[in-house]
Amino acid sequence: MIDVELHLQRSEFQLNTKFSVPSRGVTAVFGPSGCGKTTLLRAIAGLEPDAVGSLEVNGQHWQTPHERLPVEARRVGLVFQHPSLFPHLTVEENLLYGRKRLEKATNPFDLKELILILGIEELLNRHPDSLSGGELQRVALGRALLAEPKLLLMDEPLSMLDQASRETLIQLLENFLQKLDIPIFYVTHSSEEVARLADNLVLLSRGDVTACGPTATVLASLDSELSRSESAFSVLQGEISSKELPGLLCIECSDGIDLKVPTSESMVAKHYPLGRAVRLRIRARDVSICLERPQQSSILNILPAVIAEISTSSDSGSRLIRLDIAGMHVLSKISEYSVQQLGLHAKQVVFAQIKSASLV
Predict the structure, then answer these.
(1) Across residues 187-198, what is the average pLDDT?
(2) Nearby residues of 34 by Cβ (< 8 Å), 6 or more positions away
(3) What angle is formed at CA 272 by the lines to CA 268 and CA 273, rounded to 5 degrees?
(4) What CA–CA distance (Å, rounded) separates 251 from 264?
(5) Range(s) of the chain covered by CATH 2.40.50.100
(6) Considering only CA atoms, which of 46, 80, 54 is closest in space to residue 1?
């Protein structure tokens, strides 16, 4: 486990964090700009000397109220928004920089294999000033991993990229991060990146941790600041079961539950083979509720559901509803008026209408 209790006081900002996450997989740190995501990562890395508290990683005390490991002893890999490659070194020299500083390589990545995975084999003799943003980030990721980190910290690595480069790199991260045997903290304010990459989720708001746990569990809560916002969403896991419908993919998310997804140019899933595991993001505002199954509807995903919970208070004229669809939790945000008109209540059997365009 990774146990974090770190505090930092500044004149204009206060960081107060306490949470625990598994020591494997991707933990997304999610929240709006200015909420303390980058500061938290810097404190974990040991780059904030004024941060106090405790930090334990896999049973090793990196920080206690009385002592702290220096940055170099923590062995963290860092990938930031702006890749800090050495401009006077070639790509290959940048990649090997951290490895050469190791006293002894204990569990080294195969250099050739990593270069192939990252797709940078043709860049090795070039310098950073000749690379695109996506290429720079792939090299930065490779350099971080070749230094054999005990923890990988990624701070919004896609935020500065154009859409094409971003899509290429997120596909690489989808396939690659889950294979690593080290824990990863991934800072983002993108719900799509959370949906596609995160096993666990830490929500930050104004320097405080407001929720922490498995991604699906945190997203299903009606009490978090995220669920109450316009950005509220759910994440479902499934696999591609059919490509036979024109312009659509069928994603099997549970026994008897298939969701139809358009194969638009933005859909990475259209490139995946049958049986490929995928994740789907469903925005709460794109899920409506009806008491009877609609007939001849243009909405393709109409699923039987049971109301598991309804928020007790109205937020800006809307209520949040957690639906149980074959054991999967999906949020719906509808108007207070609709809740009253339909007489909605917990344990009620209803139908959920999910717009295909909201599945990504």
Answers:
(1) 90
(2) none
(3) 165
(4) 15
(5) 233-358
(6) 54
Alpha-carbon span 101 to 117, nearest angstrom:
23
Comparing C-alpha atoms, which of 299, 265, 270 is closest to residue 282?
299
Domain 2-228 carries which CATH code? 3.40.50.300
The residue ranges of DSSP E strands in the chain, in sequence order, are 2-9, 14-21, 26-30, 52-57, 60-63, 76-79, 151-155, 184-188, 200-205, 208-214, 233-242, 248-254, 257-262, 277-283, 287-290, 301-310, 318-325, 328-335, 349-354
Model pLDDT, residue 340 = 95
Q: For 233-358, CATH number?
A: 2.40.50.100
- Residue ranges of the chain assigned to CATH 3.40.50.300: 2-228
Distance between CA atoms of residues 52 and 6, nearest Å: 6
Ranking 15-19, 90-94, 175-179 by mean pLDDT, the lowest is 175-179
In 3D space, the residue among 93, 75, 205 whose CA is nearest the CA of residue 142 turns out to be: 93
* Distance between CA atoms of residues 94 and 137, nearest Å: 12
Going across the sheet that includes 200-205, the strands are 60-63, 52-57, 2-9, 14-21, 208-214, 200-205, 26-30, 184-188, 151-155, 76-79
Distance, CA of 95 to CA of 75 (rounded, Å): 16
DSSP 44: H
Q: What is the pLDDT of residues 109-126, one digit of tens each?
A: 678 888 988 889 999 999
Q: Would you state the pLDDT for residue 245? A: 77
Bridge partners of 289, per DSSP, are 352
What are 301's strand-pairing partners?
Answer: 354
